[in-house]
């Protein structure tokens, strides 16, 4: 087991002139789990990771590994493996790239064949990188991060551009790293891309935190609901209460925590209430994510101003 250490971001802000790239951001990334760091393009993910890795100075706040900033880590490469911008020389082989890096970083040369094996490119190790596919380059980037056998991995968009086989492989790979006790932080601008790879999510938009926690909580929010409305909302509310159904009141009716409209209709019938609307609210994780990052309150929680897709229309 590796002893992963938590990543702690606290009150972090970064200003580039008039642009606020990161705005009072706080979250924690736990060891033993894969955490998706999500947000649309320009949300501030790369800037946060660059501050975390000591490449950019924060305007305010802290970004630490187990309480220490990157620059104060006694053995940084053996603590944190990071892949931000990978640039490879097309004329050199994967093995040569890794050997040079290991030597310069004072890491044991025996790690080179080990990491090539680990990321599944050992058989191509002596080919020039210029002929590598995008997927193979992504694997080579990962090999770099693993050279110091670190307990923490920080990966910027590692799934971007991979083919289905590569995506399947990386899912298993990330999970395996976390199961070993490592802290794994993976950024992406698409929830759907990392949905099957991550345990936790940290979602940011315009530099600010909009949501953090287990992915399963987000899935719960995104489960199907029923929309019901009546000319007499007071009586409908009473009927729903009577049936023990949970709901929130929206602009166009009640959003009932019940996937089956039949059950909601029955509750109204029992309560003697006329219904003016009754239909299923079809939602999904991606819609829930988009409604979060678009700067709106989560429509599935309690909001009445956010349009949500219902059978192709809007509520
Ligand atoms: N060096 C810089 N100088 C000026 N503005 C910058 C700089 N780096 C980032 N920004 C701005 O900060 C904001 C956040 O950018 P950042 O690259 O961190 O977002 P991101 O979430 O990683 O998006 P992407 O996935 O597109 O890289 C953007 O408005 C970007 O234009």
Automatic annotation (TrEMBL):
Keywords: ATP-binding, Nucleotide-binding, Transport
GO MF entries: ATP binding; ATP hydrolysis activity
InterPro entries: AAA+_ATPase, ABC_transporter-like_ATP-bd, P-loop_NTPase
Domain of life: Bacteria
Residue stretches making up the ABC transporter domain: 7-231
PANTHER family the UniProt entry points to: ABC TRANSPORTER, ATP-BINDING PROTEIN
Record-stated family: Belongs to the ABC transporter superfamily.
Protein name, entry field: ABC-2 type transport system ATP-binding protein
The organism of origin for this protein: Agromyces ramosus
């Amino acid at each position: 087991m590796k002893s992963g250490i938590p990543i702690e971001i606290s009150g972090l802000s970064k200003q580039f002139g008039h642009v606020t790239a990161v705005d009072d951001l706080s979250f924690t990334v736990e060891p033993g789990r894969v955490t998706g760091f999500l947000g649309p393009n320009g949300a501030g993910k790369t800037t946060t990771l660059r501050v975390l890795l000591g490449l950019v100075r924060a305007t305010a706040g802290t970004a630490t590994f187990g309480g220490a900033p990157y620059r104060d880590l006694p053995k940084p490469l053996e603590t944190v493996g990071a892949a931000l911008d990978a640039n490879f020389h097309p004329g050199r082989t994967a093995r040569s790239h890794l050997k040079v890096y290991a030597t310069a970083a004072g890491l044991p040369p025996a790690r080179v064949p080990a990491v090539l094996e680990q990321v599944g490119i050992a058989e191509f190790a002596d080919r020039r990188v210029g002929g590598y596919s995008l997927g193979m380059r992504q694997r080579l980037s990962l090999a770099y991060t693993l050279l110091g056998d670190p307990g923490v991995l920080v990966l910027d968009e590692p799934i971007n551009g991979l083919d289905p086989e590569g995506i399947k492989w990386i899912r298993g790979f990330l999970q395996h790293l976390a199961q070993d006790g490592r802290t794994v932080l993976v950024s992406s601008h698409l929830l759907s891309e990392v949905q099957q790879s991550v345990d936790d999510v940290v979602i940011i938009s315009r530099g600010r935190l909009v949501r953090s926690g287990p992915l399963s909580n987000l899935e719960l929010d995104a489960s199907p609901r029923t929309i019901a409305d009546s000319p007499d909302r007071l009586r409908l509310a009473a009927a729903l209460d009577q049936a023990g159904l949970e709901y929130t009141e929206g602009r166009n009716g009640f959003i009932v925590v019940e996937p089956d409209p039949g059950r909601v209709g029955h509750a109204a019938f029992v309560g003697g209430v006329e219904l003016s609307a009754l239909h299923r609210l079809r939602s999904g994780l991606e819609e829930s994510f988009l409604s979060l990052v678009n700067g709106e309150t989560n429509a599935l929680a309690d909001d009445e101003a956010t349009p949500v897709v219902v059978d192709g229309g809007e509520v």
